[in-house]
Amino acid sequence: MSSAAELPGSEAEPGNTTDRPYPGGIPEATVARLPIYLRALYALGERGVTTVASDELARSAGVNSAKLRKDLSHLGSYGIRGVGYDVEYLVYQVSRALGLTQRWPVVIIGAGNLGRALANYGGFITRGFRIEAVLDSDQSLVGRKLGGVVVSHVDDLETVVAAHGIAIGVIAVPAGAAQAMCDRLVAAGVTSILNFAPLVLTVPDGVDVRKVDLSIELQILAFHAQRRNAERFGQATDQAAAEA
User: Does the CA dihedral 170-113-130-149 come out positive or negative?
Assistant: First the structure.
């Protein structure tokens, strides 16, 4: 299995490490946090903030300031003592490190509810991702327009990849069809795949796979909610016993 950087909202395939440096010497754990910093920086920019102290940016990103400063030092950005970081320039630095200063052609496989939601999401283009095609095996969906592109039949996958120079494939099909779609993407030359299907894909070395499983995230939230409820119940029991 290939390795992949940890990114918010997704997980790497089993067996990957988070301390292996990326090209340029940036550790994977730092790469995992860069999109979070970028999101916080965009929010600051939208509020008209031009400079930000490391403490404030760290709070916005949910990390401690020492970790943030160390992460940003990998980009050659150290800020100005007493002033902080220039928001606009730091957006550029983080975007450049993540490869977002260029456009990445994307194909979405699956035009069901999830595929339609992804195709219609307008935030991708502002982050450097251009949806070039949406594919599906359902003939009744072929020819419909989604998010500015017309749905094509999945039989055209290889032609679409070649014609548009697809760099990233998004798999939004049922689990039973996901591996076959992955295999075709890899065979067509796609080496970056975002997988929404509820299974672990098998890929050769040199192919990066990110897996997004919303049910897992909900289960984790349920665990924490259950623990908080148990703690509250225990506190209430202790208080009742003390008052008895």
Answer: positive
- Confidence at residue 239, expressed as pLDDT on a 0 to 100 scale: 65
Q: Which two tokens stand for residue 47?
A: 């509020």
Is 29 inside a domain boundary? Answer: yes
Task: Give per-residue pLDDT as tens, 11-58.
Answer: 444 333 333 444 567 898 999 999 999 999 999 999 999 999 999 999
Q: How many domains does the chain have?
A: 3
Does one domain contain both 24 and 75? yes
Backbone torsions φ then ψ of 12, nearest 5 degrees: -80, 165
Domain CATH number, residue 64: 1.10.10.10
The domain boundary residue, chosen from 70, 98, 126: 98
Helix (H) or strand (E) holding 19: none
Could you tell me if 151 and 77 lie in one domain?
no
Mean of the pLDDT values across residues 173-185? 97
Do residues 112 and 193 share a domain?
yes
Which CATH number covers residue 165? 3.40.50.720
Using alpha carbons, select from 109, 231, 233 the residue that is nearest to residue 182: 109
Sequence-distant (≥ 6) Cβ neighbours of residue 4 within 8 angstroms = 12, 13, 16, 208, 209, 210
In the chain, DSSP finds a helix count (H) and a strand count (E) of: 9, 10
Q: Which structural domain range is residue 85 located in?
A: 11-98
199-224: pLDDT as tens digits? 999 999 999 999 998 888 899 999 99
- pTM of the shown model: 0.74
Q: Quick check: 190 pLDDT over 50?
A: yes
